Amino acid sequence: MELKHLQALLGIADTGSFSAAAKSIGTVQSNVSAHIARLERELDTQLVDRSSGRLTDEGEVIVGRARRVMNELDAMVADVTALRQEVVGTVRLGMIGTTGRWLVPQLFDLLRLRHPHIHLNIAEGSSLQLERQLASGQLDLAVVTFPLSGDEVMAADLFNEDIVLIVPRGHPLGEATSLPLSRLADIELLLPAPGTALRAEIDSAVGPARVVLRPAMELDGVRLIASLAFDGYGPAILPATAIPGHLREEFILIPLEGMPRRRVGVAQRRRGLPAAPVRAVIDVLGQVVHDPLSMPEGIYPN
């Protein structure tokens, strides 16, 4: 088994065909076919369905391991380079969308200052999606919400944030400094869809208070809910990071009494030693979060 055989299989997994895989790894299709055939002979099993170009179940298992092998090789090179006091490499960072609005620009600016040779590749998604990509080796790090859904990744607390009621300035509730959960029963709200992580957090808070929420709409996607709230479709219950800085003059964040704060952390795989560029990004994330000048309203560093 050689690395080029694994690279060919990863190319097919990422692109969906032998020809596209050949282009992605800088070779010709016949070489990719030969590499896959050699790998299949060695493992005595079919890895790719030739009629569809899709991986078999056995192929999926090998791809998961192969990603980790290639990640470790990249980390080895990055660590050796870092010994020369120059941290170089690419970090694939997953980010929940609301947090990314304020965290990514500041992370980029500070990282460019401290480690100009680190390249960030950022993917946005839900916490569950990012955890899966992290576990499979598609990401090196991910900024996610607690609790984690599985045991293949671990996370350290980064910050807590308020879950608030967002209303436009001039709204009848706009003068309130805080709001008891019982008042939510009187308001038609833009709410996360049942089954989503944020809805579960909201329901777990209002349930003991026997509050029945009145959804104007239920939507799967925090950013979509925020966009509709900003466009005037109604108040919404959202994490504080959902409100970008340039809109904070137009909307009011009302704390909800008895609503627990949302915990946000930086996650990585349990197995494997993070490479020098990954460790550098973790360090810079911590510096950004603990800079009082960079923290939006409703965010509390750990």
Set out the fold topology.
Layout: H1 3-15, H2 18-25, H3 29-43, H4 57-82, E1 89-95, H5 97-114, E2 118-124, H6 127-136, E3 141-145, E4 153-161, E5 163-168, E6 179-180, E7 188-192, H7 197-206, E8 214-219, H8 222-230, E9 236-239, E10 251-257, E11 262-269, H9 276-289, E12 299-301
Parallel strand pairs: 1-2, 1-3, 6-10, 7-8
Antiparallel strand pairs: 3-11, 4-11, 4-12, 5-9, 5-10
Helix pairs in contact: 1-2, 1-3, 1-4, 2-3, 5-9
The CATH superfamily of the largest domain is: Periplasmic binding protein-like II
What is the correct CATH architecture of the largest domain?
A: 3-Layer(aba) Sandwich
The number of E-state strands comes to: 12
- H-E string: HHHHEHEHEEEEEHEHEEEHE
Please, what is the average pLDDT? Answer: 88
